[in-house]
Amino acid sequence: MLCTGRLGGFGARAAALLGAGIRARRVSTSWSPVGAAFNVKPQGSRWDLFGERRGLFGVPELSVPEGFHIAQEKALRKTELLVERACSTPPGPQTVLIFDELSDSLCRVADLADFVKIAHPEPAFREAAEEACRSIGTMVEKLNTNVELYQSLQKLLTDKKLVDSLDPETRRVAELFMFDFEISGIHLDKEKRKTAVDLNVKILDLSSTFLMGTNFPNKIEKHLLPEHIRHNFISAGDHIIIDGLHAEAPDDLVREAAYKIFLYPNAVQLKCLEELLSSRDLLAKLVGYSTFSHRALQGTIAKNPETVMQFLEKLSDKLSERTLKDFEMIRGMKMKLNPQNSEVMPWDPPYYSGVIRAERYNIEPSLYCPFFSLGACMEGLNILLNRLLGISLYAEQPAKGEVWSEDVRKLAVVHESEGLLGYIYCDFFQRADKPHQDCHFTIRGGRLKEDGDYQLPVVVLMLNLPRSSKSSPTLLTPGMMENLFHEMGHAMHSMLGRTRYQHVTGTRCPTDFAEVPSILMEYFANDYRVVNQFARHYQTGQPLPKNMVSRLCESKKVCAAADMQLQVFYSTLDQIYHGKHPLRNSTTDILKETQEKFYGLPYVPNTAWQLRFSHLVGYGAKYYSYLMSRAVACMVWKECFLQDPFNRAAGERYRREMLAHGGGREPMLMVEGMLQKCPSVDDFVSALISDLDLDFETFLMDSE
């Protein structure tokens, strides 16, 4: 109901803006405070040697691991009081406010702990956070089955007069809380309710087991592998360990061996997947849906699986000719490098498309890195956000104990007229035991408090960038720079959401809308007019030449149709697995049929790629979301920002129509408000197809 699958939590108080006072490394270009802050080594805690220890994110209790227990107990006590209030308050808008405060009090601990348990370098903190997650999770399960609490919301939503008196955001939030309740089967009789609770627990356990299995290495006896390729893999006694697909390996045989061994079916993992899919289907049917996909897609842009399949089938039809041309191009390159065996196999496209890109466009990352120092990229974001939205980023010195690693930077997000909007903690650098993923975490959700103040949002952006060296600041590859812009898109969604309720703050919105702001930022990151504002050689100050940006953009179109076709295949497979049950065939037979129909490369016998499909856990029935979000982002870019990426009026409309509402408004209404028309499935497909074409307009506009 309240926290499951959501990102939210606690945060920090304001401190003086110290960015300008940071001692910068000598460089030949001048940075604003935020640029300078990211091109110097952090000063660490010696700035605050004798200061009071504040605790993680400024939460006083979290100066020590034991503080998690204190924080969770406080949250649980507050929860009990709020449950009493909710059950005794007459139905009305106040009911929704109490539910949201209940959600907030749990999320302030649970989602902060969710982040700390994977990111904190100290085991004691990670373990304490893990325990807090379990404790809050148990409370959420109790609330999900609290009939009296459910009835207090039901009284509101079954009273037509009261419902009609609610403003649209309050009504939507009330319906979302009810939806969360009903997933637990609370509206069912006692026996069915117990079945629903048991299924929810079983699904959580199966999801965790399946997720672990997706990364588990396979091993093979040494003598079964040709001797000349064994050195590419990990050796363990008489066995070779295969822990991934080795997709970039130049030797065809290495990629083939990795593919066939890593994807070899594991009976335990196969049984786990089958049980997960059938349990999801049973739960969906129990709570009133014909399939799990119908349940998962409620409230999304797509609305239902029929629309998703229409979108995927139409996109596949439009892609087919282009995909065949891409496969022909890959076949040509394979024949050139390996004339004995030129048939394109599933392990070939990532490697050969990379070879084609490198040969045609000379986009060696080391040529670009000197122009993309981290400070320069942060300054670029600062310029873009300032011109589009009137926002500035300021580096702020964290208090002692506020951050979990001394290289974490804290940014204050400040609007030119509204003042402080929130905080972003930037955990950007590689370290031991840190997850290798780029992601955004909501630590505290924004909401309107009872006293009329706004609870400022707090987020973490996590990247895995190399550290600076003695001779240079941190230098980013073009891909890293694009990822930075992508994640900052999520952060701005969180910062600029100004919802009354934290349950729908920022990125707490349907999955097929949540990626729109982040993907839109990729378009800005690939536009020369934007890149030219900040890409400077860290030693000479020389700007990045325009033709290098053009080459980079053109190179991304190489085999892009085949890449998109692969995403269509994965999305379709996900829909079928979460569609009508019992499945008409085994999951492997369905994989084979779907791959041949929606991708075009042959299925390899005795492989089961679906057992490595980790997104089936977090994105069950929603894997299509990335494609749909990209379609929306593409339309927003072309309609609103292509002519002028710094158009302030378009930026303000973007904030007003899309970012401000979080998940508090129907996603399609937000898209309509921005585009000033209601896009159809055909419009989404056309946008994605048009994005595959070489388009010189972006980098040639302003060429003089």
UniProtKB/TrEMBL annotation:
GO molecular function, one term: metalloendopeptidase activity
Any single Gene Ontology cellular-component annotation: mitochondrial matrix
Compartments in which it is found: Mitochondrion matrix
GO biological process annotation, one example: protein processing involved in protein targeting to mitochondrion
Main location as per UniProt: mitochondrion
SUPFAM superfamilies linked: Metalloproteases ('zincins'), catalytic domain
PANTHER family linked to this entry: MITOCHONDRIAL INTERMEDIATE PEPTIDASE (PTHR11804:SF79), PROTEASE M3 THIMET OLIGOPEPTIDASE-RELATED (PTHR11804)
UniProt protein name: Mitochondrial intermediate peptidase
Species for this entry: Cebus imitator
Name of the gene encoding the protein in the UniProt record: MIPEP
